[in-house]
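Record type: monomer structure entry
Structure origin: computed from sequence
Chain ID: A
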Amino acid sequence: MRLKPDPIRRHPPNVLPRSVRKEPRIAITAVPLHKNMKTYTMKQACKLTGMNYEALKFYCNSGLVPGLKRDQNNRRVFDERCIAWINGLTCLKRCGLGIKEMRHYTQLCLEGESSIPERQEILAEKREHLETQWRNCVKPSPTSMKNSASTPT
């Protein structure tokens, strides 16, 4: 006999099913939005940043976008500052920083000006690493030099 899956829906911690909740579902991070602040939906943020939906959702869930707000329906709401932050994360990703490194960098940014030297050190180390990789890629091999010397110009 084949058993049916458990009909109980699993909910994230701190979120009760609607049948149990009395008040509307609002995330802890929900804050009222200013009327003159330009806001974007998840789909609009994806277009503006060039990220796909899943990647942007992963970044948000990983805590890489500080100050991300949610509306009364618990949907993510991005403002200009969030979009600029995500674009900065994209740049860090292209430079080779991993998720853990980006999370650490984000925490340092939230600490304020006192962490600037450490952030500069992280970026300098990554730059040195990238320059080393680039030099190794561009360095001509002895066989290519031999072949280029024998070809007439």
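Annotation 1: Residues 11-32 have pLDDT under 50 and may be disordered.
Annotation 2: The two ends are 79 Å apart (CA to CA).
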